[in-house]
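Can't paste images in this forum, so I'm doing it all in text. The chain is below; anyone willing to post the predicted structure tokens underneath?
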Amino acid sequence: MNKLASRIKPKSGFANLAHIGLNALLPALLYVLVRIDFAPLAAALIILSKWRMFAVRPRYWPANIRANAVDIMVGISVVVFMSSTNIGVWQITWAVAYGLWLVFLKPGSNPLQVSLQAGVAQLVALMALFLLSGGMPLYALVILSWLICYLCARHFFTSFDEPYTQLYSHLWAYFAAALVWVLGHWLLFYNVLAQPTLLLVVIGYGLASMYYLDQTDRLSVGWRKQFILMMVAIVTIVLTLSDWGDKAI
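Text version of the structure:
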């Protein structure tokens, strides 16, 4: 099985260049499909590109879907971003960013790279979700926010062999869902960034950074205080200066 996997996903030689070329081709195809107003087909192409998830017995499908969820969320989010603008330069920029994700960040497997994958996926997936939130019922926002944060947290913790991965992932997802449920009644936007996304990114990145430094034996008392003070300061400023009227800013 390991030999077969190494042949399917080569790490060197011409086959590796071909693999990189196919990854680079996918963003170009997404760009073309979005430009000709076939965004749903572009999103379907993201799913089709993960066909290997289902090339095993059905009992392994849930685990494969969880393992590939971060990559799928990033791809779908890029399609949403490209579809939300008619400016070709921005669409090309998103296509290039997705290509960089596929070629450089997605293949990484060390704790730092996996942590970055989880952080990027949570940011772009929440941004895309709230861009599509117009007319979406609050319960749908809550459920989807829970799912996004759960899958990203699980992806993050698995690189550390954390014994409480399930518990911590559910706790973070519950916190995110509760925050979205409360703030969803006064949904505010700072340009394209929704307030729940901003708060979850600040708190999530702060907690993840402290956890990462602790796992690598680099978390000093000073660093912990700085992270906590920074998170509290940013959250306080955001909540204090927000216009809590029934409108978006």
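The chain has two domains: 1-107, 137-249. Residues 1-107 form one domain.
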